[in-house]
Design goal:
alpha+beta, Rossmann fold, seven-stranded antiparallel sheet, five-stranded parallel sheet, 19 strands
Length: 351
């Protein structure tokens, strides 16, 4: 689909930040990929996807890099890639960079005969991905850009410190003043430092970056979760007007306490259960604990930014098989809460 050129004149876009991401996060100057493919869509509720895609395209061209852009129709998880995009992906030279900015999902990859992650690993492509942009209002795009404009080396080093502690730990206790009190068994599990340094062929990550996350042992999380940062529902992400309190027993939601906001989470879990072909209980299972490490991110009601904010943590329900867990599920909903205190194997840990 042809890009609406009027979107390229969005006056508040700081193209230099996108150039910084290309040079410092992807380190393209040192690896010299043969091609960059920018993937966006026409927008769903918001025009953030085509605006951000255009900015990356302009930044890459400013740097003199061989770049193409494909703007397809917006997709849900059950939709397929547009035919033109599938052909472009198949024709990419090895060791290319794929920059994805989509309103919801990119679409199913069946025509590639591999999952997208396995496709990238096989051919050495590095994906940089921003999904769920339908929740990002155009007037909030500068918050997105601010979260891109970080010291990647510092963010990486802070994340490595957290990862090292979690990798060696058996038990994690997370508490907040408003009621979160969770005990996670993380023995034998490894954390991932999503720092934004994506310079390894075949691997990439989210952008904005800035979180360290780990899949807890699936049946051994217990306690209370009080969601007061941002609430991910099946329709959108919102800033809750009051905490949503979730009781968790043996890794599974046992109760969502009644409140004005709680119905949104109850409806989300019910929607996910209805979509499950197997193991509907996985929709209610704790699959991730994560800590935000991005000092420029703010809570704005867009999960890909909210979960990265320094001084927040998040718990997800649903799939985690792609990052070291055992849960295969169609959904994965991150719930963000503020000002966590951590104790790792009984010792207070400061980030």
């Amino acid at each position: 689909m042809k890009l609406d050129m009027n979107l390229q004149s969005f006056s508040d876009i700081n193209i230099k930040v996108f150039e910084k991401v290309i040079k410092q996060s992807l380190k393209i100057d040192s690896l010299h990929p043969e091609k960059i493919l920018v993937i966006g869509d026409v927008g769903q509720e918001s025009k953030a996807s085509p605006i951000i895609s255009s900015a990356y395209y302009r930044a890459a061209r400013n740097l003199g890099l061989k770049t193409e852009i494909c703007i397809q129709n917006h997709k849900f998880s059950t939709d397929y890639l547009d035919v033109v995009l599938a052909k472009q992906l198949k024709s990419l030279p090895r060791n290319s960079v794929i920059i994805i900015n989509v309103s919801n999902k990119m679409g199913k990859y069946d025509s590639l005969n591999l999952s997208f992650r396995k496709f990238c690993a096989k051919y050495g492509h590095r994906p940089l991905s921003s999904s769920g942009l339908k929740n990002l209002k155009v007037e909030d795009i500068n918050h997105f850009i601010s979260a891109l404009d970080v010291d990647f080396k510092d963010q990486h080093n802070r994340g490595e410190k957290i990862k090292k502690e979690l990798d060696q730990a058996k038990e994690l206790i997370v508490q907040t003043d408003i009621g979160t009190d969770l005990l996670f068994d993380i023995s034998g599990r490894k954390a991932i430092n999503n720092s934004g340094v994506y310079d390894i062929l075949g691997k990439g990550g989210n952008m904005p970056a800035g979180e360290v996350y780990i899949p807890p042992v699936e049946t051994k999380t217990n306690g209370l979760l009080a969601i007061d940062g941002s609430l991910r529902t099946w329709k959108k992400t919102i800033i809750p007007s009051e905490p949503v309190v979730v009781e968790i027993k043996d890794g599974v939601i046992s109760k969502i306490r009644n409140s004005q906001m709680s119905k949104l989470l109850k409806d989300t879990i019910a929607w996910s259960v209805r979509r499950s072909k197997f193991h509907p209980e996985y929709s209610r299972t704790v699959s991730e604990f994560g800590l935000g490490t991005n000092k420029n991110a703010k809570l704005i009601g867009t999960t890909i930014i909210d979960e990265k904010k320094y001084g927040t943590a998040h718990v997800a329900f649903g799939s985690n098989a792609w990052f070291g867990g055992k849960i295969k599920c169609r959904t994965h909903f991150d719930q963000v809460f503020k000002k966590p205190t951590l104790r790792i194997d009984g010792k207070l840990f400061r980030t």
